[in-house]
Write a structure and sequence with these properties.
The protein is of the alpha+beta class. It is built from 5 helices and 3 strands, in the order αβαβαβαα. Strands 1-2-3 form a 3-stranded antiparallel sheet. The chain is elongated. It starts with a helix and ends in an 8-residue tail after the last helix. GO terms for molecular function: peptidyl-tRNA hydrolase activity; ribosome binding; translation release factor activity. InterPro entries: Pep_chain_release_fac_I. This is Ribosome-associated protein.
């Protein structure tokens, strides 16, 4: 079941924070870093099965309260950072909820089996020919 992204946007909380690291005076006066937080366990748009699947997939991203926190400070623009963090969130959400098809076992082709056996015979013959010839065998 797909999640309505427009409705999910209403559940997301955004906070603008000052970026860390190098950047001179601009870093000290502009809050361009955007922190996105989403209460996964309290969400009304996600089913219980999806919550369980997301909880397993996002073990390292979830807080103890069941909140997902993501941040972005790539650009100097708060609006661009907000767009980037939203895109990251939705791609991560889509990847985590994607159904993985089970792998079908295939048979080993007869040609591959034949080729392996021929190779083993060649190696065996090579090793036999390396041995010394004993004169008592004649």
């Amino acid at each position: 079941m797909k999640i309505n992204k427009e409705l999910l946007l209403t559940e997301l909380l955004f906070k603008a924070v000052r970026s860390s690291g190098a950047g001179g005076q601009n870093v000290n006066k502009v809050s361009s870093k955007v922190v996105l937080s989403w209460d996964l366990l309290g969400s009304k748009l996600v089913t219980d099965g999806q919550k369980e699947k997301l909880s397993n997939a996002w073990k390292n991203r979830l807080s103890k309260e069941g909140t997902v926190v993501m941040e972005c400070d790539l650009t100097r623009s708060q609006f661009q950072n907000k767009d980037l963090v939203i895109k990251r969130f939705f791609t991560l959400l889509d990847l985590s909820l994607k159904e993985v098809k089970p792998r079908k076992d295939t048979k080993v082709p007869k040609k591959a089996i034949r080729k392996r056996r021929e190779h083993k015979e060649q190696l065996s013959l090579k090793k036999v020919l390396r041995k010394r010839i004993d004169k008592s065998d004649f």
